[in-house]
Write a structure and sequence with these properties.
Layout lengths: L2 H8 L25 H24 L11 H45 L20 H27 L6 H20 L10 H19 L21 H53 L1
Helix pairs in contact: 2-3, 3-4, 4-5, 4-6, 4-7, 5-7, 6-7
Length: 292
């Protein structure tokens, strides 16, 4: 598919939906045929994310229930949930694929006896081409991926541009390392991305803005008792600035960040194609040398 064809396909009405003909792209890496290293990567990242999240919450003396009103808390929690679900789906897919491969010899023998035709077993990397309807939990996971990744990057950008940086360990993990984790995950996984899926993180942004309005209207205060969560979302003291920031964050900054995720996916797909072409040429070259 050329770049022009890819972009035209991105702007079709059906691209708003959560449909995909291969669910394995959500649980496997396109870089390897043997998926065990990717399963171990998922396990390591899942363990890391849980430990970091619980440790920060347990050791951060500044943490109070009011902290849950902050966008950073929402974003980091969503990222943690996404990583845990990623590991679960990856383990499940690997276990099912491994069980299928172990059972395949018996099936092959039975089919050969019945039809006289020798069937070949599909490898773990090859069987991802099957076309199955995407289960509902994969769709939910895809939407979660869109929201957590786009807003994770958006939170990082907004924090370092609008806030006075806090260089505490918790702040670094919540506002910088989170995006590093996202970029690495995009590049090593096979997770797809569609431009029109910006509607999902956009919906999340609208929900959060409505939450901040309700929180302010019901008398909610910041960590130090100020009548706002963020100084630039002071609906009582400076409603014009608050409205401008809310609209720009949800309608401009978030779609830009979703485009960043989309761009990373395009880069990954291009690199994977180059890697596979090079590997194919190397195999052909080795076969030619062996034949000589």
């Amino acid at each position: 598919m050329t770049c022009g064809q890819r972009m035209r396909s991105e702007f079709r009405l059906k691209s708003f939906g959560l449909t995909h003909n291969d669910r394995h792209v959500f649980t496997r890496t396109p870089w390897l045929s043997n998926q065990l290293p990717f399963v171990l990567y998922r396990a390591a990242v899942c363990l890391y994310q849980i430990i970091v999240y619980t440790t920060i919450r347990a050791t951060d003396g500044k943490f109070r229930p009011k902290s849950l009103a902050f966008l950073t808390e929402w974003g980091y929690l969503l990222l943690t949930v996404h990583i845990v679900v990623s590991a679960g789906l990856c383990f499940g897919d690997y276990y099912i694929s491994r069980s299928s491969r172990e059972a395949a010899p018996d099936d092959t023998t039975e089919n050969t006896a019945a039809t006289g035709v020798l069937t070949t077993q599909t490898s773990l990397g090859q069987d991802s081409a099957q076309t199955l309807q995407l289960p509902w939990h994969y769709k939910l996971y895809w939407a979660l991926y869109n929201v957590s990744f786009s807003w994770g990057i958006c939170i990082t950008i907004l924090y370092w541009t609008l806030e006075t940086p806090d260089l505490s360990v918790g702040s670094i993990f919540g506002h910088a390392i989170n995006s590093v984790t996202i970029v690495i995950d995009v590049m090593v996984s096979g997770l797809p991305c569609r431009l029109l899926h910006f509607v999902y993180p956009l919906t999340f942004g609208v929900v959060y803005i409505l939450f901040t309005v309700v929180y302010w209207a019901t008398g909610g205060t910041g960590l130090d008792g100020q009548p706002y969560i963020y100084p630039y979302l002071d609906y009582g003291g400076n409603p014009v600035l608050a409205a401008i920031v809310a609209v720009l964050a949800a309608v401009v900054a978030m779609p830009v960040c979703h485009c960043i995720v989309f761009g990373l996916v395009i880069v990954r797909e291009s690199l994977v194609r180059l890697f596979k072409k090079r590997s194919s040429r190397q195999r052909n070259h080795n076969v030619s040398l062996t034949a000589l």
